[in-house]
Amino acid sequence: MMRTDVLIIGAGPTGLVLALWLTKLGVKIHIVDKTSEPGTTSRAVAVQARTLELYQQLDLTDALLDGGHKVPAVNLWVKGEKAARVGFETVGSDLTPYPFLNIFPQDKHERLLIDRLERLGVTVARSTELTRFTDEGGRVTARLRGPDGTETDWEAAYIAGCDGARSLVRETLGTGFPGGTYRQVFYVADVEATGPAFNGELHIDLDEADFLGIFPMAGEGRARLIGTVRDERAEHPESLKFEDVSDRAIQHLKVNVKTVHWFSTYRVHHRVSEHFRHGRAFLLGDAAHIHSPAGGQGMNTGIGDAINLAWKLAAVLTEQAPEALLDSYEAERIGFARRLVATTDRVFTFATADGPIANVVRTRIAPLVVPVLARFDASRDFIFRTVSQIMLNYRGCPLSVGTAGQVHGGDRLPWVGSDTNNFASLSQMRWQVHVYGEASPALTTWCTEHDLPLHVFAWQPDFESSGLAKNALYLLRPDTYIAFADTSGTPESLDQYFRSRGLRISSR
Q1: Can you spell out the DSSP letters for 183-240?
Q2: pLDDT tens digit string along 191-226?
Q3: Domain segments of the chain: what residues?
């Protein structure tokens, strides 16, 4: 019997990020995928700001930016003409170092993650699939079938199901996967083309009861078309070609297609598993939640799952935390997944609703209202925070305690600007303390004695507008979310936080 700490089933972005995080923290992993090679099609393309922030810990952010395409604006089209433009450069510039949508196709994304993993001495076991597993209480035993048909038994402390919408891990657990299937058939096409919509920006056509968007990609004239198929053509999507569905893009958005590099059709579900954890088994990514492509959230949410779970598994396996810490994975991620599915469902329903009233709202009201809303800071920030996932927080969860200023335990740490760059220390995969103002000598001594990094930033008036409180203590988790916010800034409160949860500070 082969042995590992964590057995990861599925080597898409979710499984690869989980493997990278755990490996960097010294956890032994074995990752398998039933495909013979990494994906060769672009599939998910959007990398949101929060993912770029979190990727600093894996030293991946610059690579995604260098190889990707920054989308500066979104344009709304009606009746073959551009009706509105909302620039991202005015949205989020004071909220994150990455106030834009970054387009980096999934096939390139996976190759980058695989390369980084191989540099650490870990290789994905290809053409290998899970046939069954059993949670025996103190361990997991699993059977894997290799490329030659040989079956091997594995023992692991935990198993992570990153094996997609048809997850065998989820099916074995027997947890429900409630939701439904959209009636529309989607098509995707990666093309080289010319036209006014091929200017490096995002374009969405609001004319009909279908979704149609053009997502720019790196390279002149390169873009991803995403649309829905209507009428009788949707009955047999497997027989469709790009020519069968391209009329609307050509006519409404004035697209002149030169080359089609990839075309595919598929149906989309909107579902969330009833549980993300059962005993020693966990569900992540599409195995736990699937939803419409509206907003480009799917891959980013799976990556967020992986980072949330990774540091907790590492802490438990290295005896820095009790097993109860793992309960917080489902508590923190399942609520977000449910809200996300509900939100993307509403957006997609709006974009595809049929009937005269829906058409008027899309074609006449939306192009007028959206630019007006974008002029107001509050609405602009809300839209960006939601789409970029920087609004995601774990308030009210067991690990989240306290409030200091407008910042609560469970929040993402506010970014205070490039001049101060309070995100620089977040590349460390460990607990740390931030103080904006002055740290007391007692706190400084306590952090030194416990090998807990303390970062002190000289107070600036702008910090208050970011929600931070002067001289307050902000304890950051290894995944950079705030665990504890305390205005007193005393080491006693910090000590109590760790002791009450059975947590020890790792110097890894």
Answers
A1: EEEEEEEEEEEESTT-SSSEEEE-SSSS-EEEEE-SSTTEEEEEEEE-GGGGG-GGG-
A2: 999 999 999 999 988 777 677 889 999 888 999 998
A3: 2-68+104-177+273-341, 71-100+181-272+353-391, 403-501
